[in-house]
Design goal:
Largest sheet: none
Strand content: under 5%
Number of strands: 0
Distance between the termini: 35 Å
Radius of gyration: 21 Å
Order of helices and strands: HHHHHHHHHHHHHHHHHHHH
Length: about 450
C-alpha cells in the first residue's frame, strides 16, 4: 500500500514546518502557459513509473497462486509479511523528500547518509526482534488475531524480508539526488530492474517447485528491492562526485537537530497511514470468511493499486504546475477526465466478466477466491476517482503553502478506518474483505471531501 503515501513527498516544498529557503532550492519548471497537452506529457512518464511499481503485487499473486497451498501462502503474505514489513519501513519513506530538499552539497549528503544508516540500523533491529523472537507470536495471534495456520508461513516470510527496510532507505536517499538533478528516467530504469529481478526470482522458485509460495515470494521481493537499491547507488555516484558542490552552500550546514525538526513531521503522516495495513488484516481476521478474505487481499489490492497509480502520479504534476498561468483551470479539467477514465477502467473490470477472467485465469486464484475478489472490486470502483482529486487538492494546498490539512485528512482517514474495522469485527455478517474495503472507501471519500473543503477555505481567504 506504498502508493497511498508516496504522492505526499512533494508536500515538503510548501510545508510551514521547514525554513523557507528549502523551497527555493528545489528546481521549478518553466512558467509557460499550462495546456492539457503539457499536463499529459508531464504526467505520462510518472504514471508509467507508478504502473510498473503497481505491477509488483499482481505478479506476486500470479506466481504464488499457482504454487502449492496458494490460499494459505497468499493469506500469510497479505495478513503478516507485507503489512508488518510496511509498518517497520514507514519512518524511512520520506527520505526521498528529505534528500530532494536537503542534499544541496556533498557535506549535507554525507550527513543525510549517516542519518539514513542510523535509521536503517534501528529499524532493521526492530524487524529482527519481531521476526526472530516470541514477539512475533504475540503480534500475530494477540494483536492481529490471524488464523493459526498462517503463523509459520508468515514467520518465514517476515524473516526473509529483513533487508527490505535498509534497501528502501538506501534507494530513496539516492533517488532524491537523482530527482534533484533531473534524472527521473534513471528512477524508472531502477523500477524496471526491480521488476525483472522479481519475475526472475519468482520464475526460478516456481520451476524449482521445492519451496513454499511465501518463501519464494519473499525472496523475490527482497531481491528485487535490493537490486534496485544497488543500481540507484551506482547511478548516483557520478552525480555525487561531479555535480554536488564539495563546499557547504549554506552558512549553517545541516546538523542532527535541524534534520530531526525537519524530518519528524514528514514521517508522521505516512506512518499513520501504514498502520492501516496491519489494522486491516486484524479486522478481517475477526470477521467472517477470514482465510479467504486474507488470501484474496493481495490480488484485490494489487489490481486496485495498479489502476490508482495514475492518480498518485497526478500529485507531482499539480505541485509543479498549479501556480503557472491557466494552471488551475487546466488541472481541474485534466483531473475530471482522468478520474472518469480510471473509474471507468475499474468499473469495466468489476461489472463485466473481465474481473473473473483476471482473478481466475490470469491471477490463478481458485474459483471461490476469484468470485470473492470480483465482488470486492465492485466496492472499490470509486477509489481511482477520488485518488485523482486527493492529488489535486494536496497539490493545491502545497501551492498555498499550507500542508497541515493533508495531515488532518490522513488523521480523519485513519480514525474512520479504525472505527469501521472495529464495527466490522463486532457486527459484520459479510466476508471481511468486503466490509474492510467498504470501510476504506468511506474513509477515503471523507478524506477527499475534507481536503476539498480546506482548499476552498484557503482559496477564498
Amino acid at each position: 500500500m506504498r502508493g497511498c503515501i508516496e504522492p505526499q513527498i512533494f508536500a515538503v516544498r510548501g510545508s510551514r514546518c521547514h525554513p523557507s529557503t528549502l523551497a527555493r532550492k528545489i528546481p521549478r519548471l518553466s512558467s509557460a502557459p499550462v495546456t492539457l497537452r503539457r499536463i499529459f506529457r508531464l504526467w505520462l512518464p510518472l504514471a508509467g513509473s507508478w504502473l510498473m511499481m503497481g505491477a509488483e503485487m499482481p505478479l506476486f499473486t500470479i506466481f504464488v497462486a499457482r504454487m502449492a497451498l496458494p490460499e494459505l501462502n497468499l493469506a500469510a503474505w497479505g495478513s503478516l509479511v507485507f503489512p508488518l514489513s510496511m509498518v517497520i519501513e514507514g519512518p524511512v519513506i520520506m527520505l526521498l523528500a528529505a534528500s530532494t530538499a536537503l542534499a544541496t552539497d556533498s557535506h549535507n549528503y554525507k550527513k543525510l547518509h549517516r542519518y539514513m544508516v542510523g535509521m536503517s540500523g534501528v529499524l532493521t533491529a526492530l524487524h529482527l526482534l519481531l521476526a526472530f523472537t516470541p514477539l512475533y507470536d504475540w503480534a500475530a495471534l494477540q494483536v492481529l488475531g490471524v488464523p493459526h495456520e498462517v503463523l509459520e508461513p508468515g514467520r518465514i516470510g517476515l524473516q526473509i524480508m529483513t533487508p527490505w527496510t535498509a534497501a528502501i532507505a538506501w534507494r530513496r536517499l539516492n533517488q532524491g539526488v537523482l530527482i534533484r538533478f533531473g534524472q527521473s528516467r534513471v528512477v524508472v530504469v531502477g523500477t524496471i530492474i526491480r521488476l525483472i529481478t522479481l519475475v526472475g526470482a519468482l520464475s526460478w522458485g516456481y520451476f524449482q517447485n521445492t519451496h513454499t509460495g511465501v518463501f519464494v515470494g519473499a525472496v523475490a521481493v527482497a531481491l528485487g528491492v535490493t537490486a534496485e537499491a544497488l543500481f540507484i547507488h551506482w547511478a548516483t555516484r557520478p552525480l555525487i562526485r561531479e555535480r554536488l558542490p564539495q563546499e557547504p552552500k549554506d552558512p549553517t550546514p545541516l546538523n542532527f537537530p535541524e534534520f530531526l525538526w525537519f524530518y519528524l513531521p514528514l514521517a508522521v503522516t505516512p506512518l499513520m497511514t501504514l498502520f492501516i495495513q496491519p489494522a486491516g488484516a486484524a479486522g478481517m481476521s475477526r470477521m467472517p470468511n477470514t482465510l479467504a478474505s486474507l488470501a484474496a487481499w493481495p490480488a484485490v489490492h494489487g489490481i486496485i493499486f495498479l489502476v490508482r497509480g495514475s492518480g498518485f502520479a497526478f500529485n507531482e504534476v499539480v505541485v509543479a504546475l498549479a501556480g503557472q498561468p491557466d494552471g488551475l483551470h487546466q488541472l481541474r479539467i485534466f483531473a475530471r477526465r482522468l478520474a472518469g477514465v480510471t473509474v471507468g477502467i475499474l468499473a469495466l473490470i468489476a461489472l463485466t466478466p473481465l474481473g473473473h477472467l483476471w482473478f481466475k485465469s490470469i491471477s490463478g486464484l481458485s474459483t471461490p477466491l476469484a468470485t470473492l475478489s470480483a465482488q470486492a472490486i465492485m466496492i472499490a470502483i470509486l477509489m481511482p476517482g477520488y485518488q485523482v482529486y486527493q492529488s489535486l487538492f494536496q497539490g493545491l494546498l502545497v501551492h498555498h503553502r499550507n500542508t497541515r490539512p493533508i495531515s488532518e485528512a490522513v488523521a480523519l482517514y485513519v480514525f474512520l478506518s479504525l472505527g469501521g474495522l472495529w464495527l466490522g469485527s463486532q457486527y459484520a455478517t459479510c466476508s471481511g474483505i468486503l466490509w474492510a474495503l467498504g470501510t476504506f472507501v468511506f474513509a477515503g471519500i471523507s478524506q477527499t471531501f475534507w481536503l476539498g473543503w480546506r482548499v476552498r477555505n484557503i482559496s477564498m481567504s
